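Hello,

Following up on my earlier ticket. Below are the two sequence lines again, exactly as submitted.
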Amino acid sequence: MARNTENRFEHEFIEDYEDGACIFEEGDTGRDLYIIQSGAVQIKKNTPKGQINMAVFKKGDFFGDMALLQSLPRYASAFAVGETKLLILKPAGFLMKIRRDPTFAFEMLQQLSFRVKMSNDRLLEVLKRNQIPMEEIQGILNLLGGGSQA
Amino acid sequence: MITSIQTDRLVVISDLHLGNPFSNAKKKVLPFLKWAAREKYDICINGDGLEIAQASFSKVAFEVPEFFRILGDFKRAGREVYYVTGNHDIALEHFLEDWGMMKVSPFLNVTSGETRIRIEHGHIYDPFFVKHPQLYETLTHLGGYLLKMHPEFYRAWISFERFTSRLRARKTGILGEKPEFREAALELSRRGFDAIVLGHTHHPGESVLETGSLYLNPGSWMLTPHFVNIHSGKVSLMEWKPAIPSQRMP
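Thanks for your patience. The regenerated structure is below:
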């Protein structure tokens, strides 16, 4: 159920989800960004070995950023954990949101930076555990870093 | 940079302006800090703790040693000191952090129990500061000279802001504040904050937002010693009374 409170919020709305409800599915073409007002959201991804849990986001966290920022299909699926209320930002309202709430951009960058570090750390751990040669690890990291920078 | 913390007990004070010709906040804030340390609170100074826009460095250096000594004791007792930068002390951001006694950040997201609280100085929501930053800085600087000559000018200005605020059609915010501050708090509340604490305006008060979240401002200790008390997820505005610090704002 969508509801607008004021004109300035015309590109964003609030939706309630029941426990286990699907918010979006992997491969969907939606571009909305989601911020959790209450409840939690689990992100799941299909792999050749079955579905894996990628992350659980809680109140105040955002998700759906890949589709919004890179115009890609949804990378994974999102499901509500418990009664969940989401603020949904339409792509057209994203820059206006940042103008009204500039620290939101700061917090997005901070969270994205954290997620990149976590991914790199996990990848390094897996590569080391599988005894992959150092040169190959370096090659993968260079690829992730977009070049040879540290 | 740390912007998210968890704590059970935190007090938030704002706009001490130590070093400002008008500020006598030091006299009140030192016993308050000792009380907070005894009661095992962490402390957050929500911007403009030090005055470097309207006072000379020597004046500030004269005013602050005892203040920092108590903050040091705070830290040694295992309590945390957070400093959110404001427009009068933003240049000190890295300088303060390098001292190692406090964590400095542009805003703070606090989780206390099940409650999420946003603490931010709020100058970036001041329409005059945002639209005319250079003019704002120049007038702030000139205001410093005026305060040196007539410190009571500040009190007159605050009364004027309260008067003009009463004339506005929408009277839903904190008395004396421009409506933009409450709008900013509403915007933040839509991101899942149960309470939003701003400073900057020097007008203490609280207001319930359309989202059901609480918007609070502890004002400035240059006028009245209000603080925001965060205790096990409960957030309230209080006035510091040296004997019994429990009187709630009307």
